[in-house]
Design goal:
four-stranded antiparallel sheet; 2 domains; alpha+beta
Length: 201
């Protein structure tokens, strides 16, 4: 837990809820919901007065993925926004179709949907959705599908301090890919027999 804060009053609450689902057809749905609310009423030129707790942003995004984390389909919806045109950009998120979550994901998202080509809040939601996809798909597959001899290391290894490949977490939970002291990669090979004197070679 955090330490006790100074005296304060609530002003703004952003809530992001991300969930992963395994579909009956073998694909995966990764769904996110973002809301922004204020603790006080304020005026909006389009919607009039927005009451405390009423979302100024209420947005949804769903990525349908295959086992390789490639985007098969996208659905986006803006239930509430500050301007009448906010919802008009949601069809643009279909540009993510065919893109794979992995190295370069954020860069490619910005190329396709950055700035005036997308919605700031829905684009921000794609970050936690990508993380949720890893947590949903890789963890489920690791539990339910046998590892093959030539499987590459899980992509989340070396992604943070706890998952360093030479650390204790990987040694205990992913020993096959552990590279720290005592691993196969770190144990020196046994010396061979000594060479005979040069005169006898």
């Amino acid at each position: 837990m955090l330490s006790s804060p100074a005296a304060r009053e609530p002003i703004h609450h952003r809530q992001i809820d991300c969930r992963g689902y395994r579909r009956a057809d073998g694909l995966w749905d990764i769904e996110g919901h973002l809301t922004d609310v204020k603790s006080y009423p304020f005026s909006n030129a389009w919607r009039g007065e927005i009451a405390p707790g009423e979302p100024i942003h209420d947005m949804w995004l769903r990525l349908t993925l295959d086992d390789d984390l490639t985007v098969i389909a996208v659905a986006a919806a803006t239930v509430a926004g500050p301007f009448p045109v906010c919802a008009a950009i949601t069809p643009a998120f279909a540009k993510l179709t065919g893109l794979r979550i992995g190295p370069g994901w954020r860069r490619e998202v910005q190329r396709r949907l950055g700035g005036v080509n997308g919605c700031t809040h829905l684009v921000e939601l794609l970050g936690p959705l990508a993380t949720t996809a890893y947590q949903t798909i890789h963890v489920w597959r690791a539990k339910h599908e046998p590892a093959l001899e030539n499987d590459p290391p899980p992509r989340h290894l070396d992604s943070c301090h706890a998952l360093a490949r030479d650390g204790e977490v990987v040694r205990e939970h992913y020993p096959r890919w552990f590279t720290g002291a005592g691993s196969v990669a770190c144990v020196p090979s046994a010396p061979g027999p000594p060479l005979p004197p040069a005169s006898k070679r």
